[in-house]
Structure formats: structure tokens, C-alpha cells
Design goal:
The structure is a homotetramer of 199-residue chains. With 199 residues, the first copy, chain A, is mainly α. Chain A has two domains: 1-51, Arc Repressor Mutant, subunit A; 58-197. The first copy, chain A, is built from ten helices and no strands. The N and C termini of chain A lie far apart (49 Å). At the A-B interface, helix 7, helix 9 and helix 10 of A face helix 7, helix 9 and helix 10 of B. Chain C binds a DNA duplex (21 and 21 nucleotides) through helix 1 and helix 3.
Chain lengths: 199, 199, 199, 199
DNA sequence: TATGAATGAGGGTTCATTCAT
DNA sequence: CATGAATGAACCCTCATTCAT
């Protein structure tokens, strides 16, 4: 990669990270392009060399952050030696929930913005290294040798939606209960979902 | 109610309905106070006599629309003669899903904005007739003579979160599948959740 | 007219006159809405209460200024006692040319922007008192008792186009000659045009 | 001409033609340097190696396009065998009008921008082959053996201004009438102008 | 109570121009 | 000669909010 291209990648990354920190701290609606470039230390016009508008950079961020989240969880899973399908999924969910607990603004951002559409777009058209990993994790979970799922995509969809929406309320507002109290019920439900999709 | 008070209530209702139609058709971010008052046929200053700002009227609307949704479903339930707890909840969910199918912008509005916090606020502090009704439905479901739930609030919470988040994607974008294909899995999962909370 | 309405008319007039002085001194392209409101002493948003954009105010100005130009010339004609059709038209043209000589920026503005379309729109839909006068002058010239014109509209069109385009170059740049030197030829040509349209 | 010089001429021509197509289709105000270089397939900086700014390239274009227009008309005239001065001028005007009818955006461009100043600059300082040709046509019309004109430059000036301003309205907007209906009057007036300048 | 004219900060976006490569 | 990434001033326009009527 030439020096110029490296420079460009750094600018893009800097804009992405500035946008993320602002989106998560002040919310997307209250973040202006001005804010983002100011935090990045680049000129306003530069933003438009890399992104179409605020929503373009948001979409890039969701895919990127969700991928990193899963990659991290998957790394831990690899080290754990777990091989049972139920345990694997619960492990991943638990790890992700813990990441959320430590980074509540990430939770707010992902929960409010992750849609299954962006999810799949990112799988099919990875725009970043982390998103390539993401694809590998996904396909490894789905195409296992030991088990056959009925409609595995629907299964994952339901688990992800259930986890993200309940955690949002439990972790951020302890509503109706805190995450610790919620977990047993949540994990039981996830197991039920998996069971439902086993042949 | 005096004629003046009636007039005031009509103005407030008119503002609420105008805001709802604009929020659902153009989105909250793209709706201005100007738009709302123009559609309502009242002056700009008048808005501030009834609501603090755009987000104030939005919160009022969520509670109001969610209550109406549940009330309608409950009316149908009453006429159905169903008394089994599983069937009752599935019936309610199914009815609400059907309402969503017929009114997709309502789904988008409720899904993106309904939080358990507003939900409970509305239960505890009803600001409208429909919300009082709402409370009755809720307590009738929870405090039944025939069954005892463990943590009934968590159960309802999970069901509501699961339904609203999966329906959002399935009904509006047919992602990962359409609502018809999703329903069997969804209902099975709801039954599992209920079962889990029965003593 | 209420005090409020009077105030509004004054604001509108002030904006029109500010825009005119800026358009004529700096050109339309180099005049921003900011410039106009600054000169008018009103807030930026106020501009948009009265005009759609820069081109809206420009069109209003052309009609207004052209009407005032003709009205002034016609007033002088009334006082002159001239009744011969050739002499009347030459008198009007001469008077307008002299107005242009004294107000070159007005000439630049009118010449570059007056189109027959705006001309007729202003005749049909006067948006101002001066434009009503304008209509009267026009119809009095066309519908005379003493003479009958063939295609009087085409005749006026040609005279106006010839005068405005040649004066632009002659008065502003003395190209190919100054206005004094041009006049004899111009007036002869106008007479030829009139003659051509007499039955 | 060396290969390098040829390459440079091609770049310049390419920029000129791109600018022309954009100016005529979108208008000068809505055309940016970015647009021009994009259409030309050269880098932004390259533009500034050949032209000072947008208005520089516009002036080059007017002279170039006006010259081409006259050259084409003159070619046709040469082939026609016409030798009478009235007929020659009418022939040229008619030919140019017909060119305008077939290329309305050219008409809009020329009419709005051709000034007698640029006209003469182009005559005196031709910046291009076509402009040299242009000069020949001009002097051949003026310095004839068979006739002597009084102030031939004023004569041509008036004809050109009258034709370009009336055609603009008639061809582009059919105001006050279409070009076909206008032509008889226009030609009569041109003949009057010529007659006026014959000794 | 109700009005709606007025505000002006601040939003998104464009673009001519420069300059290191 | 040619490039095109970067700049940042300047643009247009919106809008929540106020306040005299």
C-alpha cells in the first residue's frame, strides 16, 4: 500500500472512529458533520470525499462494530474448547452481553441500528477485514457437521433480535430487571429456540 | 366538560393525530413543528401551549397508540371466548401482528419507539382513557386465578420485545422471511417462554 | 391597512430595494441571500417569509422596475401633448433611453433579465400597483382609434428587443459607438418597424 | 506540430467541448470545474493549466462557437451563387436562424453571452483557426466593390442584436410568436436597416 | 387563549483553488 | 506536464422558539 493510500485509510478510519464516539455519546441526531470533522481534525469537505452523508457513515459503522463484536466473541470461543452447539451459542451470547455491559454506548448504538438487512449486506459485501471474519463465523455456525438445522437463518435472526432488544432495556435501564436477573430466563429461551430448529 | 375544555381537548387531539400521521409518513426527524401545526390548522405558538416539544408529543403518542393497539386486540379476545392462557396470549399476539400488517407505518412507529420504560409509565400514570383500559388488560393477564406465573413481568417483557423486533423486520422488509413464514416459529417460541414462567 | 400589514409591506419593499441595489452593483451571481438581508437589516429567515429564493425576488424586481420605467416615460408623454403615433413611440423610447443613461445599472439589470415572458406575465398578473399602470400604457398604445396595426404585439416586441439589446452595448460600453451616435439610426429603424405594421 | 503539442491541443479541445456541452445543458452557473474535468477525463489541476477559470473558458467558447456558426453559414452562401447584398445578408441570417432551430442550446448560449465586445476581440485577436476565417467573412461583407455603406459596423451591430434577441424568444419560447411567423417581419426589418446604411 | 411574524444559530453541502506527489 | 486529495470559506435553507398583538 502506497504512502498516499495509507494516509487515505487513516483519514477514513479517523472519521469512522470520531463519528462512532460522537454517535454513541450524543446520539446520531445531535451529531453534525461539523462535529465529526472537528473531532477528526480534518476539513469539512474531506468528509464528503469518503462518505455520502451521516447515514452512510452510520451504516459503515454498524457493520464494522457488529463484526468486531462477533469476532471478539468468536476468538474467546476458539480458546474455550467448547464444542457442543448449545454451549457454543450460549457462550457467544454471554460474551457479547458482557462486552455490552462494559461498553453501554456500543450497546445503544448497535441495538438501535442493527437491522437484519445491514447484517446480511455486511455478510455478502464485506467492506472491511473484520467483516470477512464475520462471514466465517456465521457460516461455521450454520454449516456444522454434527447437527442439521431447520431454517438456521430464522433461528439466528430470532436469537439476535431477542438478545439485542432485551439487553437494551435490561443493561441500560434495568427494566424490567437487571441483566444478571434476566440472563437465566434469556438463556433458557435461547436454548428453546435452538431446540426448535433441530431436526 | 365545558365548551372551552372540549375545544381544548379537540385541539390537543388534532395536534396528536397530525403529528402521528406525519411521524409515520415522513419520520420524526423530517417532521417539524411547522408541519404539525400546518396540518392541524392551528398557529405555531399554540403547539407550545399543549406540548413541550416534538419529543413530548412523540411520547404521548407512543403510549396512546400502544394502548389502542392492545385494547383492540383485547376486545377481539373478549368476543372469542378463549380462556386458556396459552391461547389467549397467542391470540393477542396474532391480532396485534395482523393490525401491524394492515398498518405498517404504525408498526415502524411503535417498534422504533416503544420502550419498556414508556410502557410502564403509561401503566402507572395513564394520561388518557385508553391507557386506563390498557392497565386493566395488563393486570388481568398477570393476576389470573387459574395460573401462577414466576416473574410474569419478565415474561411479558420478553414476549413483547421478541414480537416487536422480529415483526419489524419480517413485516416491513420480509427479512429474513415474511411474516407468514415466521409466525409458526414465533408462536412456538412464545409458548416456550410462557411455559418457562409457569410454576 | 393595519399596522402589522404596513410593517410587512415595508419589510418586503426593503428586501426588494436591497436586492436591487446589490444585483445591480455586484451582479446576481455574486449576491447572496446573506448580503440582501444584511443590507435590509432583517434576519436571514425573514427573507424566506417573503420570497422563495434569489430568482423569485429577481423576477419580482424585473417586473417592478420595468413597470416603473414605462410609467415614468408615459407620465412625461402625457405632459408633452404629443399625439402622433410615430412621435409617441419615439418619445417613449427616447425617454427610456435617457433614464437608462442616468441609471446604467438599471439598464444592465433590465436588459439582461427582461424577457417577453415575464413582460406578459406582468401584464396579465400584475403583482403591484405600478404593474397595473403598465398594463394601461400597453393597451392604450395598441388599441388606438386613429390607427390600426397589423400584429401590434410583434411590433412592440421587436422595438423593445432592438432598443434594449443595442442600448446595452452602446450605453454601457460605447460599442460599436456611443448612444448619441447610435440614436439617429435606432430611431430610423424604429420608424421603419412601425411603418411595416401599419395597414 | 510535435506529438506533445498535439496532445496538449487535444486536451484543450476536449475541455472546451466538455464545458460547452455542460454549459448548454445545465447552464454556466450550475456547471462546476469538477463537472468539466470529469467529463473530459482529466484531473482537476489540469484545467488550470489551460484556463484561468470558468469565465475564461466561456469567453473562448463564445468566440469559437460564434465563428463556427458564421463559417457554416458562409460556406453555404459561397455555394449558393447569390451576389446581391440584400440577398446575401438575408441568406446568412436565415441560415444562422436555421442552425439555431436545430440546436436550441447553442442559441441560448450564444444569445445570452455574445457581446459586441467579445465579437470584436475575436475579430482582432483570433485565438483559433475558425476565428481567422470569421474575420475574412466580416471584412468581405463590409468592404465590397459594388456598394458603399455608411457606418457598416453599426449596421451589422444592429442586425446581429435584432436577430439574436428576437430569435431567442421566438425559437426557445415561441413568444410572442414562433420563428416561422416572425421571419417575414424580421427580414423586412433587416432590409430596412441595410437600406438605411446605403449611401 | 391564540396568533404568526420574526429571529439567527446552525445544519448540510458545494466548489474553486492549491500543492505535494 | 499531470494528478487528485485536501482545504475551508461560503453558500442556501430550516427550524425551534419567542413575544407583541
Amino acid at each position: 500500500m502506497s504512502k498516499l493510500e495509507l494516509n487515505k485509510k487513516q483519514k477514513r478510519d479517523s472519521l469512522l472512529e470520531s463519528a462512532f464516539s460522537l454517535f454513541t455519546s450524543k446520539g446520531i441526531n445531535n451529531t453534525s458533520i461539523s462535529d465529526i470533522v472537528k473531532q477528526s481534525g480534518v476539513a469539512k469537505g474531506t468528509f464528503y470525499l469518503y462518505f455520502k452523508d451521516k447515514y452512510d457513515i452510520r451504516n459503515m459503522l454498524i457493520a464494522r462494530k457488529a463484526s468486531q463484536l462477533f469476532s471478539k466473541a468468536d476468538d474467546a470461543l476458539m480458546k474455550s474448547g467448547i464444542s457442543n452447539i448449545f454451549d457454543e451459542i450460549i457462550f457467544l451470547v454471554d460474551n457479547i452481553i458482557n462486552q455490552f455491559c462494559e461498553n453501554k454506548s456500543l450497546l445503544a448504538f448497535i441495538s438501535k441500528n442493527l437491522s437484519w438487512g445491514i447484517f446480511k449486506t455486511s455478510l455478502i459485501n464485506p467492506s472491511d477485514d473484520s467483516e470477512v471474519y464475520f462471514y466465517n463465523i456465521y457460516s461455521r455456525l450454520i454449516n456444522r457437521e454434527d447437527v442439521n438445522f431447520v431454517d438456521p437463518e430464522i433461528m439466528l435472526f430470532m436469537i439476535i433480535e431477542l438478545v439485542s432488544s432485551t439487553c437494551y432495556s435490561a443493561i441500560l435501564y434495568s427494566e424490567p430487571v437487571g441483566i444478571a436477573e434476566l440472563k437465566p430466563y434469556l438463556f433458557d429461551n435461547i436454548k428453546s429456540i435452538i431446540k426448535r430448529h433441530l431436526v
